[in-house]
């Protein structure tokens, strides 16, 4: 398998594997440690908590589901999200963090699992053609857009979480 999924099966497996590894790392972090601000943020020069990384992943996962739902029902898409442009992804990350700041660590973990499962179910429900046979947004296929916003950030966050664990046990 290439590092970038090229098929429905590869996409499903990439997300499942990235999720499983990251989720296992999250489970090794205590509730108390989950709020320590010590992880490189998405805005240059900022730091975030483990909970904030979960908010980020949940936010993007929910966006993927929203995009598909809106587009499949013929609604207009605000990409990447209403009120945000592609050059404002750092601010979008901070928006996700604010959206979920009151959630407890265990609630965030459960929501991350739920959103990931919904994305996997969506992938299962779509055909190879729907995922990789045609441009979905600009010149990107739906499969590529899903991958950009699920398995890729999960891998990136996992690197940060593993570094956090080394220094904050």
Summarize the structure.
This protein has seven helices and four strands. It has 169 residues and is mainly alpha-helical.
CATH topology group:
Four Helix Bundle (Hemerythrin (Met), subunit A)
- Superfamily (CATH H level) name: dinb family like domain
Q: Give the N-terminus to C-terminus distance in angstroms.
A: 33 Å
Largest sheet: 2 strands, antiparallel
Counted beta strands: 4
Percentage of β-strand residues: 5-15%
Explain what this protein looks like in three dimensions:
The protein contains 7 helices and 4 strands; from the N terminus they run αββααααββαα. It has helices at residues 8-27, 50-72, 89-99, 105-125, 128-132, 142-148, 151-168; strands at 39-40, 47-48, 135-137, 140-141. It has a two-stranded antiparallel sheet with strand order 1-2. The chain has a two-stranded antiparallel sheet with strand order 3-4. 31% of the residues are buried.
Comma- or semicolon-separated keywords:
169 residues; mainly alpha; Four Helix Bundle (Hemerythrin (Met), subunit A); two-stranded antiparallel sheet; 4 strands; globular
């Amino acid at each position: 398998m290439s590092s970038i999924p090229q098929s429905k099966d590869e996409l499903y497996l990439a997300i499942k594997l990235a999720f499983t590894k990251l989720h296992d790392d999250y489970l090794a972090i205590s509730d108390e440690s989950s709020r320590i601000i010590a992880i490189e943020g998405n805005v240059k020069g900022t730091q975030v908590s483990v909970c904030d990384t979960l908010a980020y992943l949940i936010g993007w996962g929910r966006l993927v589901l929203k995009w598909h739902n809106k587009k499949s029902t013929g609604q207009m898409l605000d990409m990447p999200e209403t009120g945000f442009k592609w050059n404002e992804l750092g601010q979008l990350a901070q928006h996700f963090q604010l959206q979920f700041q009151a959630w407890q660590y265990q609630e965030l973990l459960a929501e991350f699992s739920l959103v990931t499962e919904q994305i996997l179910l969506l992938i299962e429900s779509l055909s190879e053609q729907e995922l990789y046979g045609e441009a979905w947004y600009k010149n990107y296929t739906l499969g590529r857009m899903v991958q950009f916003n699920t398995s890729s950030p999960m891998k990136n966050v996992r690197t940060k979480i593993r570094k956090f664990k080394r220094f904050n046990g």
